[in-house]
Write a structure and sequence with these properties.
With 552 residues, the protein is α+β, with helices and mostly antiparallel strands. It has helices at 8-19, 34-46, 69-78, 80-91, 101-119, 155-165, 221-233, 250-254, 257-267, 273-286, 391-398, 406-421, 427-447, 457-466, 471-485, 493-496, and strands spanning 22-23, 50-57, 60-67, 150-153, 176-182, 185-190, 196-202, 208-215, 243-247, 293-308, 314-343, 348-357, 362-366, 368-370, 373-375, 378-383, 455-456, 490-491, 502-505, 510-513, 522-526, 529-533, 540-542, 545-547. The protein folds into 4 domains: 8-190, no CATH class; 196-398, no CATH class; 406-495; 504-547, no CATH class. The chain is elongated and about 105 Å long. The N and C termini lie far apart (81 Å).
Length: 552
């Protein structure tokens, strides 16, 4: 790329020109010493080789470098080949206007990927790397891939190749800043947006032992990834089970301490220590994790919502809104058993123990992201266990009642059936309900509908009616549901049944059957005794040992 490494000014001008818009704070990371690079940047600005653009954007100041005519002349004089690369790059790119902040930020992200790829020894120039396109669309003089060389591709090259191989696909790359390919290995470079991590370590006596206030940029990569994975885990799971919608009333949003605190966390980008401390204390005073130590983590991030054009298609390179949010997770900290470990410095084995951070027990995202915009009337709450949603934390932090957990919904639905139907709640009816709800769940999965599946009480009553249940008992079932869930409630079928299994239990035995073959299980009364019957037309095994039926 740059052959004259002893000319740091030329190297800086090459990067600024090739990237079109270059973040000023990245100039110190190009190569060599940071302080020397800073001096080179100030010289380039002072002597007019680059121009510095400043603009406030969402409580940040954007500082961007771009090449001037004088800078072009310097590059042309000292390295004509580099000048030709820059000229070709700019000629093949759309013009950049400083009013288009989102375009500048996108170019900044690609500049970060370019500097990272260059530091990793990857080839970044279009003319010196293999094409990602299909053989039919490659140039005749295209480069043959060398499995020993690394190649860097920007998001535009990646998207173009994906859409060429699969025209119907929509390649989403708003967080991708590039990909490095070496042989059969691919390394995706992602822009996380999270620049700082905050938190505190709390012992079993509810005392804060230490605080966390770390820049993600200076953390070792493996540590930064572990922090991000913990936060990511707090946004995982199924909606309605592990993920619960917390809904604020209009009065709370208008004037309440709990909503004001959450908004202050978001609006301050977690930079206000007093606000963070107030939040920590709210969690500590309410959370019940028994005798476990735990870690509270907080992070702030922004997401550029992709623009939708007039054809209702996503434009990954454009954005007309920014979603700013706070994500929190609470992770138990567990004692690790003392084990022998090898210490390279001593070349010996010693006993080592310590404390490790487990997967999050609970967490939340505020505000919620609905209809491609921030919804300050909602928060998304995470609970690792669907039947333990930590209502004590919801009461303290959100001051609202959470919806029934999945386990509570299932129990309430079963109670409504058994109380209203009585003797009519037999094996065949339960099988039919299970099969109907399971079919709905499977059809919803296949449809890939973004909205969660819903079942109204009227829908459930229709299933009972189709199975010949008397209208009087159906009416009793509807009344019981109104008592259990409230008038007009809608339920998630996935919370009412376990669609992945069909299990029948007695006091002394348990029978598990594939849900698709639940019809094989029958109930009979023979000589006054109740039996569960399963056809045994094919081979039978007992603990892996083939057996035959007596009298066969």
């Amino acid at each position: 790329m740059i052959t004259c490494k002893n000319d740091r000014l030329l190297e800086l001008l090459w990067f600024v020109g090739y990237c079109i818009e270059f973040p000023a704070q990245l100039a110190v990371r190009i190569g060599g010493g940071a302080e020397w690079n800073r001096r080179v940047m100030y010289r380039a600005i002072r002597e007019g080789y680059v121009k510095l653009f400043r603009k406030k954007h969402h409580r940040h100041v954007i500082r961007s470098l771009s090449l001037t005519e004088k800078g072009f002349d310097y590059v042309a004089q000292h390295d004509p080949e580099a000048w030709a690369m820059i000229h070709s790059r700019i000629s093949n790119s759309d013009p950049v206007y400083h009013a288009w902040i989102e375009k500048i930020l996108r170019l900044h992200a690609i500049a970060i990927g370019t500097v990272m790829a260059n530091a990793a020894g990857a080839e970044i120039l279009q003319s010196r790397k293999p094409s990602l396109m299909s053989p039919a669309k490659r140039a005749k003089n295209s480069i043959t891939p060398d499995p020993q060389c690394a190649y860097y591709y920007v998001p535009h090259e990646l998207r173009t190749a994906i859409e060429e191989y699969s025209p119907e696909s929509v390649s989403k790359s708003s967080r991708t800043i590039g990909i490095i390919v070496k042989g059969r290995q691919c390394y995706f470079l992602y822009y996380t947006g999270i620049s700082r991590i905050y938190g505190c370590f709390v012992n079993s006596s509810r005392e804060i032992v230490s605080y966390i206030d770390e820049s993600m940029g200076i953390l070792p990569q493996d540590e930064a990834e572990k922090y991000l994975n913990l936060l990511k885990k707090a946004l995982s799971g199924k909606l309605g089970k592990n993920l619960i919608d917390i809904i604020f009333s209009t009065e709370q949003v208008a004037d309440s301490d709990e909503h004001r605190l959450l908004m202050a966390l978001r609006d301050s980008e977690l930079k206000d220590g007093e606000i963070r401390e107030e939040f920590y204390q709210k969690v500590i005073e309410s959370l019940d994790l028994g005798d476990s130590n735990y870690l509270i983590l907080l992070a702030h991030d922004t997401y550029d919502v992709p623009h939708k054009n007039k054809n209702d298609e996503m434009d990954a390179d454009a954005s007309d809104a920014v979603f700013a949010y706070v994500v929190c997770c609470v992770c138990p900290v567990k004692e690790r058993k003392a084990e022998l470990g090898f210490f390279p410095g001593d070349n010996e084995f010693h006993s080592c123990a310590g404390q490790i951070v487990a997967a999050p027990e609970l967490g939340f995202l505020f505000p919620a992201f609905d209809d491609r915009a921030a919804n300050i009337y909602n928060a998304l709450f995470y609970s690792r266990k669907a039947d333990e949603i930590h209502q004590e934390v919801i009461d303290s932090v959100f001051h609202t009642t959470a919806p029934m957990s999945a386990a509570e919904q299932k129990e309430a639905f079963q109670n409504a059936l058994s109380e209203a139907l009585g003797d009519a709640c037999n094996m065949e009816l339960v099988q039919s309900i299970h099969d109907r709800l399971r079919d709905q769940i499977e059809q919803h999965k296949e449809s890939h509908a973004p909205e969660p599946l819903e079942l109204s009480v009227s829908d459930a009553a229709a299933i009972l009616r189709d199975n010949g249940v008397e209208e009087e008992k159906i009416l009793a079932f509807r009344d019981s549901c109104a008592t259990q869930f409230g008038d007009g409630a809608t339920l998630n079928p996935a919370n009412l049944i376990d669609s992945g299994r069909f299990e029948v239990k007695t006091a002394d035995a348990t029978i598990s059957v594939d849900p698709e073959h639940s019809y094989l299980v029958e109930t009979r009364i023979i000589d006054g005794r109740k039996y569960l019957l399963i056809p045994a037309d094919e081979d039978i095994e007992v603990n892996g040992f083939g057996v035959r039926v007596k009298g066969e």
